[in-house]
Amino acid sequence: MLWYLIAVLSGFFFASADALSKKASPHVPALVLAWVREMYALPFLLPLLLFIEIPVLQPGFWPAMILCVTMDLITTFLYMKAIQLAPLSLTIPYLGLTPIFLLIIPTLVLGERLSSTGICGVLLVSAGTYALQIDRIRDGFWQPLLAIFRNRGSRYMVVVAICYAITATYGKVAIVKSSPLFMAIIYFSLLALAFTPIVLFRYRREPVVLVRFSGLKTGIGLAMACMAITHFSAIGRIPVAYMISIKRLSLLFAILFGWLLFRETHIRKRLLGGIIIIAGATCIAFG
Q: Is residue 8 part of a domain?
């Protein structure tokens, strides 16, 4: 299944961008990192316009695109704040909650449906989310769940997971009304265009922040460009919930990056939670 491999690659590139963003976060403000993930991807994406066929845009493309861009302006900033405030292995796995919301949203918007066995996947995803904080169970059975709301990074990432379910769904609407690569290029261009004046105004007195650590930022941009190409290529072929569920293999990549690059602790416990979440996501996808 080619789409499966493309979706896995999308997850790998996404986790790579997260790891590089985490590495840059002590030196680069969250707002600048959010801008970097879009702007620094453009040098890798824009040249593709020379090699692809420009599609005829169908009605509904621009409303879907504007909705996605507006929501992503908020979620990208929250995403960067989350990985800045808390370990990768604690925050990124909460993206595994996205498939739960994808059981509903694509059905309403796109008419896509999953089988009833997806319920098993939802239960596994919920159990995996609980297991992420299993080390807190010594303080009470409900502590792992309450910990989600006590950790700001985790709270932000739960909001991001909900928003991603919406943008993934309407992103597919934009793909159907255009083409995968064209949509990816225009999407990132609009996000960069929207972020740039905000960032320039905020750091007008210290513009060096925008170019400092340029090598690391270029790596983030390359990873995000590869993620965009693989993400939109896969999601254009299959139901949204299927693709996003497989892409959530990025959770495992992120946990491993947290251990290898940042020496994060409690990895075994969080890896267990990540595996359970992925098992649930897989059940949702193939159910």
A: yes
